[in-house]
Specification:
The longest helix has 29 residues. Helix 14 crosses helix 17. The strands form 6 sheets. Strands 2-1-3-4-5 form a 5-stranded parallel beta sheet, sandwiched between helices. The chain has 458 residues and is of the alpha/beta class. The radius of gyration is 30 Å and the shape is globular. The chain is built from 20 helices and 18 strands. The relative contact order is 0.07. Strand 13 and strand 14 form a beta hairpin.
């Protein structure tokens, strides 16, 4: 059922619209701008009916907030006859239609129905387009999983607005790629993209790095320095690992976000900038706020539009696509392929370092492989061992090993790994495996596992 949000401070109008539109969808009432924003945050409506004249904050202010947040729901403005000019201004700012009070019930119902049907049709067109294109990449990001395709769609929508964005996700998931994609797809793409990693800059230098300084502002300040935020003017400023910021710098950043202005260190001159802010963190900022490590007001200011990147282990269908892409991108990878066993090993690994670790693993394999293929032994040891069972299963699926060969190889790997972990002490290994030392020795002989020369005598 369609979600309709009515924003009007008059109880009589609220009840009339609730009764009129209950057959068209699920109607929610908000009596002011702040209540409306809370309802939008809980569930994006399919249509908004908005009164322009309300106490404290006007309907035009709400319209501006919705645009900044990237809310695409069509808006029908409700206006009195003497405020038609304001309704025209609302249309210029993105409202879909307007109707004057007192409104004719059937006319309003038709407008509502037409806009809801148009929205449903547009959603269907976008869904079909996504299915046809089956998009697997966006601005350098790669993924065919449903979660990544959803993120690609969100990035395209977010890029059209000027809203501040917070990108969250584990280390190595590609947060800077998201920031660059938002910049490249926005109207600011011709402007600069400036990135700063808060965790890579000493605390005593971060304020100067962000805001710049005047000559003589502190010891060593021999010249004026333009800060990174100022350098990003007319473009996008990406602040990575914002959770690492010192509390004193958080205060100054908050003002810069609110007013798009700041002073260089050692100066009282206010500098105005036109810049979009994208931030990122691998921390739980809400938890950091609760523990007093991060300002609550700054958190709400940077978390206007959140984008959460999933870890690679939660989108395993993208692993092979990513691995193949990294292989073909590399000059050393031309004409080379991953074996079925290597692909199986990649599938079975947990990837704590996410996409960055996968890229490094492919580079590692290219450096060690001697033929035109990268096999399990060419991958980093941790990946090869962890994914060995999956690699063997994949070789069996592909017909590269028989069932008996697969069982023998699996048992050999298990015994060898257990012996190595117990420093080749056969008694401790047997106890760990739950078998007798004699059975262990029989299996070692059968599988051709020999003790190294420096193995302990037990």
């Amino acid at each position: 059922m369609s979600r309709i949000l009515v924003v009007d401070d008059e109880p009589g109008v609220q009840e009339s619209l609730r009764m009129l539109l209950k057959s068209e969808g699920d109607v929610t009432i908000a009596g002011d701008v702040d209540s409306a924003l809370r309802e939008v945050a809980l569930a994006t409506p399919d249509l908004i009916l908005l009164d322009l004249v309300m106490p404290e904050r006007s309907g035009l202010e709400l319209l501006a907030e919705l645009t900044e947040r990237g809310v695409r729901a069509p808006v029908i403005v409700l206006t009195a006859t003497n405020t038609v000019n304001a309704a025209v201004e609302a249309m210029k700012r993105g409202a879909a239609d307007f109707i004057t009070k007192p409104f004719e019930l059937d006319a309003l119902r038709i407008k509502v129905r037409n806009l809801l049907e148009k929205g449903e049709l547009q959603e269907e067109v976008e869904r079909l387009r996504d299915e046809v294109e089956d998009r697997q990449q966006l601005c350098g990001m790669i993924g065919k999983s449903e979660v990544m395709r959803g993120i690609f769609r969100n990035i395209e929508r977010i890029a059209k607005s000027q809203a501040t964005v917070l990108v969250t996700g584990e280390s190595g998931t590609g947060k800077e790629l998201v920031a660059r994609a938002i910049h490249d797809l926005s109207t600011r793409s011709e402007g600069p993209f400036i990135a700063v990693n808060c965790g890579a800059i000493p605390r005593e230098l971060i304020e100067s790095e962000l805001f710049g300084h005047e000559k003589g502002a502190f010891t060593g300040a021999t010249d004026r320095r333009i800060g990174r935020i100022e350098s990003a003017n007319s473009g996008t400023f990406f602040l990575d690992e914002i959770g690492e910021l010192d509390p004193a710098v958080q205060v100054k950043l908050l003002r810069a976000l609110q007013e798009r202005s700041f002073e260089r260190v050692g100066s009282s001159t206010t500098i105005k900038v036109d810049v979009r802010i994208v931030t990122a963190t691998n921390r739980d900022l809400a938890k950091e706020v609760a523990e007093g490590n991060f300002r609550e007001d700054l958190f709400y200011r940077v978390n206007v539009v959140p984008v959460e990147l999933p870890p690679l282990r939660d989108r395993r269908e993208d692993i092979r696509l990513l691995a193949t892409s990294f292989l073909t991108r590399s000059a050393e990878g031309e004409g080379k392929q991953l074996t079925a066993a290597a692909l199986g090993s990649l599938d079975g690994y947990s990837w704590p370092g996410n996409v960055r670790e996968l890229e490094n693993a492919i580079e590692h394999g290219l450096a060690l492989c001697e033929a035109d293929t990268i096999d399990v032994q060419d991958l980093p040891i941790s990946i090869g061992r962890t994914g060995q069972a999956e690699a063997l299963r994949e070789q069996w699926r592909q017909g590269e090993r028989s069932f008996d060969e697969t069982v023998v190889r699996f048992e050999t790997d298990i015994l060898r790994e257990s012996l190595e972990s117990h420093h080749w002490n056969q008694t401790r290994t047997a106890n760990a495996l739950g078998i007798t030392r004699r059975v262990l020795k029989l299996k070692m002989d059968k599988l051709g596992i020999e003790l190294p020369e420096d193995a302990p005598i037990d």
